[in-house]
Design a protein that fits this description.
The chain has 258 residues and is α/β, with parallel strands linked by helices. Helices cover 51% and strands 15% of the residues. The chain has nine helices and nine strands.
């Protein structure tokens, strides 16, 4: 029997790499999508050696329409799992950021998620099975910090929930994973100083991957890994929104990031 295929965007570090290693260990062939060719090839070689799977690498920039089309064409051929993980934040104030950077951020965080999901779903529906995992963020559930980034992740959550409703009973599931702060290269790449964040708020990659996939297996549409973030987001739904903004502004320093 052919092995199921999982396509993962942004797998060269952090959560994307965690999902790639987990799906490889579980016996999936992989399609790895990112810009960094050297890292892609190194990860592919490692996973092939460790698990004897087939790995295809697609070096693309998801902020470019032509490159998104390349990935969509691969998804049209069919995969069992799509993990829309690629995304980025930036430091600095929104009103000082270069518009080209803001548009690139939305193209990666939002447009790529929409385009790739649209490409993946028809073959999944024809097969009667498939899973789309969209990596959102607690920032998309709690207002008050990281304006453009948070808004992009809120879009991912609502997009995933709406699709999940429409796909009920088809054998195809769409899920949004909303992690909090995870020990990855994300903040370093965004040049955001996180040294003051309390230790208990940090999550590690393997725990997020394991808990989110357990939630997917249970059919949960929105997965919030970590008890601390379950508590924070539950409180955010109960207390007045103004207080939530004040809290997240204090915790996340509310400014200096887009």
């Amino acid at each position: 029997m052919p092995r199921p295929v999982a396509l993962i965007t942004g797998p060269t570090s952090g959560l994307g790499e965690g999902y790639a290693r987990r799906f490889a260990r579980d016996g999936h062939d992989l399609v790895l999508v990112a810009r960094d060719v050297a890292r892609l090839e190194a990860l592919a070689a490692d996973l092939i050696a460790a698990h004897g799977i087939d790995v295809e690498v697609l070096p693309v920039d998801l902020s470019l329409a032509a490159d998104r089309d390349r990935v969509s064409a691969r998804l049209n051929d069919g995969v069992r799992v799509l993990v829309n993980n690629a995304g980025f934040g930036t430091s600095g104030e929104f009103w000082e950021a270069e518009p080209v950077v803001l548009h690139r951020q939305l193209d990666v965080n939002v447009t790529a998620v929409m385009d790739l999901t649209r490409a993946a779903l028809p073959p999944m529906l024809a097969a009667g099975r498939g899973t789309v995992i969209n990596i959102a963020s607690v920032a998309g559930l709690l207002p008050g910090r990281g304006s453009t980034y948070a808004a992009s992740k809120a879009w991912v959550v609502f997009f995933s929930e709406g699709l999940a409703n429409g796909l009920a009973g088809t054998g195809v599931g769409v899920h949004a994973v909303c992690p909090g702060f995870v020990r990855t290269e994300f903040h370093q790449r965004a040049e955001i100083d996180m040294t003051s964040l309390p230790g208990p708020l940090w999550l590690n990659v393997d725990d997020v991957v394991d808990e989110s996939l357990a939630d997917v297996a249970k059919g949960k549409v929105v997965s919030i890994p970590g008890l601390q973030y379950k508590a924070l987001t539950t409180a955010g739904r109960i207390i007045p929104r103004g207080l939530v903004r004040a809290f997240t502004k204090t915790m996340g320093r509310g400014r200096g990031r887009t």
